[in-house]
Protein 1
Amino acid sequence: MQFTRLRLSGFKSFVDPTELRIDPGLTGIVGPNGCGKSNVVEALRWVMGENSAKSMRGSGMDDVIFAGTSARPPRNLADVTLTVANEARTAPAAFNDADTLEVSRRIERAAGSAYRINGRDVRAQDVRLLFADAATGAHSPALVSQGRIGVLITAKPAARRAILEEAAGVSGLHTRRKEAEKR
Ligand code: ATP
Ligand code: MG
């Protein structure tokens, strides 16, 4: 799964609309402390369905919305859009007719999140399923936050098993089985 573009607006320190192109190969983000490097990675995690405010370094999900500075008033809305190449047609059937997928999540203060794929309203679960098998996803071991290595080393066996299952690509199957059992 190839990510090609990330757009942020009102998300954490990215108050103005910002577009980052993601070319094939390795992308590095460099900058001084506090410039927003980790916020970019958190935007990726968030748009893929992250539910834990704590792993976004906040106490509630509204904390991802630009909180204002001495020079700028706070925002009431944050929006992140991730563009994913789908030429290989690996997306679930419902979205698999397009060459690119635009996955977006937007949050309004005190009103929660809404997700869209190519302009259609979808459930958070649809977004999670889209990324579940792709070694991506909000909980993918491919996303290693600052300080996570230490947590991994001291993890309990059950938590470490979950990490291994994700790495082995079977956690997507668990999610689908739970979905099927509900029907
Ligand atoms: P380091 O090199 O220290 O890891 P970094 O480049 O990863 O730094 P981030 O942690 O991404 O930096 O960004 C931190 C900045 O984002 C801080 O200045 C913080 O005030 C700002 N920030 C975080 N959340 C918000 C918010 N909701 N509204 C406005 N600014 C925010
Ligand atoms: Mg950082």
Note: Residues 12-13, 31, 33-39, 63, 65-67, 146 surround adenosine-5'-triphosphate (ligand 1) (CB under 6 Å).
Protein 2
Amino acid sequence: MKTIGVLTSGGDAPGMNAAIRAVVRTAIYNKVRVLGIKRGFNGLIRGEIEEMDVASVGEIIHRGGTILHTARCEEFKTEEGLKKAYNIIKIFGIDGIIVIGGDGSFRGARDLSKFGVPVVGIPGTIDNDIACTDFTIGFDTAVNTVLDALNKIRDTVTSHERVNIIEVMGRNAGDIALYAGLSGGAEDIIVPEIPFNVDNVCRILIEGKNRGKVSYILIVAEGTKNSFQLAKEVEEKTGLEVRVTVLGHIQRGGSPTAADRILASRMGAHAVKLLLSGKSNRVVAIRGSQIVDYDIDEALSMKKEFDHEMYELAKILSI
Ligand code: ADP
């Protein structure tokens, strides 16, 4: 293994830069050349590739986003697109590719591996929706961003004795909602993994009001119910004043937390070590405190488990 390519793909996540830095520096430390591929699989198909050195990843560990940029690439899902990418890989003499992204990106990497290109995936997404790993890079930062917003919203909600519905990201996963909801003491957490009914939510709010509660935060994960529709129904059924805050892309940005920087550094170094030891078609993961890896097909076939115990705890603690 003389030359490794690295790219970021799909939705960006804070800590991707720390992962790139770890890949580049671990490789160079081991006397392996690193090529940075810009704009995900798009840049691979188009040969948007530059050599990276130790200095090119300086001053980025604390920065959100990704210096390699990221993109979605429909062409890469076609045989023709894959062939173009494979040709570029041969032209540039790339011996293995590290893909930092979500499960869509790992599917792309898996397709590329069928051409005999060794690939390793690093889970980078704020959604924490990758089944083989306890945590993905960017999740902790996103949860802290939501928590910061929740604390601020709590101030105004309490002053006005209102309800605020905070809509958070997560695609089809409720982890951001669950972790931010538990740590922020949300009155209720609505996630795609748990069926919910509006009357139950209203009952929680009315019971709280009867006990003298003056502020109510409901966290709703995107992919559940339209927050504005929910607000309307809750307002009609409880008589409480309801406001909606959709946090949106603010959750994707910001300086990564220490936890994300450490996770990214460990995962990036592990990915390089896998390629150098001849292991390929793997996805890096963290289980407990251990960095581990899985076969990419196995990783893609695993089903993400929702933490029901934590969800129940959040319910109990918000009574
Ligand atoms: P994420 O990696 O964050 O899940 P996407 O699902 O958008 O993001 O995937 C990123 C890119 O990975 C896509 O634009 C596409 O190039 C590639 N990709 C996604 N799904 C597949 C698939 N089923 N087969 C091949 N490539 C895919």
Note: The two ends are 57 Å apart (CA to CA).
